Amino acid sequence: MGRGLASFQARMRAVPKAARAAVKPALLSAGHDVGDTIETLAPEDTGDLKGSVAVTGPGETTPPYSQPGGSMTVPEHMVAVTVGNSDVRYPHLVEYGTADAPAQPFFWPGFRLSRKKAQAKIKRAIGKAIREARS
Asked: What are phi and psi of 37, to 5 degrees?
């Protein structure tokens, strides 16, 4: 019985490591899926707005002047999808509109359209890592 318990404990210790290792590629892939949807919905006058959609992985820094939130370092086990950079500083004006221009929402609708699929992709990767760690 002691051997079975040791084997079980070893598998349980391996699960978090396996899940952490599997989540980064899944996060980046899901982030790119969300970014692609946002880019597809972005209005295209000059193409600069579409070209400013960026996916930033863990430990990396988002572009300066990006929306939402500006430049920041992305924490571990997180991915950030942003729009805007030092050349394109107006995504929030397009998203929410101004007194002179109507709103053309693209960021939040793109996020909402892609969220469930992205979450499912991440959960599948973690579940697969856990199943493989048990083997």
From this structure: -65, -45
Question: Can you give the residue ranges of every domain in the chain?
Answer: 14-134
Cis peptide preceding 68, ω within 30 of 0: yes
Element (H, E) at 80: strand 80-82
Predicted confidence (pLDDT) per residue in 94-134, tens digit:
999 999 999 999 999 999 999 999 999 999 998 888 888 76
Maximum distance among all Cα pairs of the chain, rounded to whole angstroms:
75
Distance CA 31, CA 123 (A): 14
What DSSP state is assigned to residue 83?
B
**pTM given for the model:** 0.83
Backbone φ and ψ of 82, nearest 5°: -130, 165
Distance from C-alpha of 110 to C-alpha of 96, rounded to nearest angstrom: 14
Residue 56 host element (H or E) = strand 54-56
